Amino acid sequence: MQDSSSAESTRDASLTGDLYIYNPSTHHTAFESNPSHPNVLIFLSGQTEGPLHPPYLFTLSSTLAKHSYSLVQPILSSSYLGFGYSSLDDDVKEIGILVEYLKRERGKSGKIVLMGHSTGAQITLHFLRTSPLSSQVSAGILQAPVSDREYMVWKGPESVNKWLPIAEKFITEGKGDEFLPREAYSTPITSARYASLTSTNLTLTLDDYFSSDLPTDHIKALFSPAQPLLILLSGSDEYVPPHVDPTKLLQKWMSIRAEMRRVTFGVVINGADHTCSGREEGEVICGWVEECLEFVG
Prior knowledge:
CATH architecture of the largest domain: 3-Layer(aba) Sandwich
Strand order of the largest sheet: 1-2-4-3-5-6-7-8
Shape: globular
Protein name: DUF1749-domain-containing protein
Organism: Rhizophlyctis rosea
Structural class: alpha/beta
Number of strands: 8
Number of domains: 2
CATH class of the largest domain: Alpha Beta
Strand content: 15-25%
InterPro entries: AB_hydrolase_fold, SidJ
Radius of gyration: 18 Å
């Protein structure tokens, strides 16, 4: 989900650490604050974003240091405007390369936790579900997981009704990599990625992890990772339609996880917007992350 601008001041909004190339074939880089620590939290930002977003990352970095964790923020092919012509599978491959690099080249001998904000949340779950390296990750944290489909249908049903059939037609013709016209979306986007965001055809919707109307059996598959999950929903998320109750949705996910005997922590942060841009909301996020790290430890 594309993020709104943060209202928090950028005063003291800086981190020090190491910047390095983790993927030589693409020259993709990652920034690591508190690099001397043996444990790692890899943070995945939302759609059209990259490192240093959302604003609570500055507080999160210092919180992690207290628990001997560094904060790693990678650039992926899907970062910034690359979202529309990348895929979750691409993200998984690149995060796998990062995980291997952290262990081999950076000497990370402790635990690895994956945390995603917004679109980063579905990347996190997709990695835990599909990557051959998922066993290297000790836990997943989902902050502001929201449905792109429900948001787009809520805000622009005419646009979805116009462009989704065109995208699906391209896909059936074997042209899923073809770009849609500029007016179809806020960033350049392929037919395959557009359908993945907006279609109700579950064979096309790789991105649809968090819609409230997904069948229970499908949710079980999506939320199947054995690792503990921490789910942090925003009570006043501007990307959640009025008909979706965050509390009921969280209860649904946690109930399904409980049936599968999976450890899950979850909370709805009252008054928080999509990025938890207020200082108090950011501190609540960091407090829950601390709880998760202590449990994993």
